[in-house]
Write a structure and sequence with these properties.
- There is one protein chain.
- With 337 residues, the protein is an alpha/beta fold.
- It folds into two domains: 181 residues, D-Maltodextrin-Binding Protein, domain 2, CATH 3.40.190; 133 residues, D-Maltodextrin-Binding Protein, domain 2.
- The chain contains eleven helices and 16 strands.
- The strands form five sheets. A five-stranded mixed beta sheet has the order 6-5-7-16-8.
- It is globular.
Length: 337
């Protein structure tokens, strides 16, 4: 199916074709409107990216139905695949982990070039850490040396935030015996002793950690305070994040952790300013509906959506945020006027 992008302005639909030709429908006055297809790249089915992408698509379809939009949330391999599809123009919007986008737009840390994508809005924090059992001997990040540790699914891009964390704590991937698998599989391996720790997280509470805490005495490995401060100073996608006491079974004290890269909605740099403006407006004005569909949507708030996490915002998004008075003019992630 050919994909298109378009804009709605004062009731007039202007269509900008990305490729191919589109269908059309007759309006009540006999006029013909182009059907506009917009795709939102997410991640594998079952994860929060997929669910959130579905919620955003539903809201866009509900609010823009009179303009003949057709918005689809598409299951993908996740952030890395989404960035490549946006850059090539195969999709128009996607959800990504901001730590992965940060390096992609700079062409660093293994990316073959700088990818042309822009931020639309910061969505929700990704609070993650190494999880082990209280009976084990891992009490700090440095204790992972030489241990068998789950580091997320192969090719998912976890290395973009795990690698800096390890390096700041004096370790590297070579110091570990890595296992690559999903979060629930990691919990299973932790339970049967196949691994001694797993890097788990996402929105709070995280399902995989809740599952682990229901069957074993878990221990959330703390980050070094000095190391955490240095990471936050070096990379804008890192940030302090606390997990309240009793969030997980057996967790009797507040955990002072990190947001290892907020999820954010991104778009291709070449996508029209007017389309991005309309998508930004509809999602923001209907953020309560998004939150009803997934609790991570509660983070779509004025102080969060415009937060600088290292990727420049698209001019269409900036235009809307300026109109409603929440754009911080001093941000380093703006676009030149």
């Amino acid at each position: 199916m050919s994909r298109f992008i378009g804009l709605v302005s004062l009731g007039v639909l202007a269509v900008f074709c990305l490729s191919g030709c589109g269908g059309s429908e007759s309006g009540g006055d006999g006029s013909t409107k182009e059907r506009v297809y917009v795709t939102v790249g997410t991640a594998p089915v079952g994860g929060v990216f997929y669910t959130m992408g579905g919620a955003l698509s539903e809201v866009l379809n509900q609010q823009a139905s009179e303009e003949n939009w057709r918005v689809t949330a598409e299951s993908t391999g996740g952030s890395m695949e989404n960035i490549r599809h946006l850059d090539s123009g195969d999709t128009q919007f996607a959800i990504s982990n901001s730590s992965i986008t940060y390096f992609a737009v700079r062409g660093e840390e293994g990316w073959d070039r700088a990818y042309q994508v822009k931020s639309v809005m910061t969505l929700f924090p990704n609070v993650a850490m190494f999880v082990t059992t209280k009976e084990g001997d891992v009490k700090q990040v440095g204790d992972l040396k030489g241990k068998r540790v789950s580091l997320g699914p192969q090719g998912a891009g976890f290395e973009y935030f795990i690698r800096p964390i390890l390096l700041e704590h004096g370790l590297s991937y070579d110091d570990l015996d890595p296992v690559y698998c999903g979060q629930q599989t990691s919990v299973d391996y932790l339970g049967d002793g196949s691994i001694v720790a797993a890097f788990l997280g996402g929105g709070v509470p995280t399902g995989s950690i809740t599952s682990a805490a229901s069957t074993m005495n878990i221990f959330l490995v703390p980050y070094g305070e000095v190391e955490k401060r240095r990471l936050i100073e070096k990379y804008p996608f890192f940030g302090s994040a606390a997990i309240p006491a009793d969030t997980y079974s057996g967790q009797t004290e507040e955990y002072q952790g990190m947001n290892v890269g907020s999820a954010h909605l991104i778009t291709g740099a070449s996508v029209s300013e007017d389309l991005v403006y309309q998508v930004t407006r509809i999602i923001y004005e209907n953020r309560e509906t998004v939150a009803e569909k997934h609790k991570a949507g509660r983070s779509i708030q004025p102080q969060n959506v415009v937060r600088d996490i290292g990727t420049e915002f698209h001019p269409g998004a900036i235009r809307y945020y300026r109109e409603i008075g929440i754009w911080p003019e001093s941000t380093s992630s703006g676009a030149a006027d």
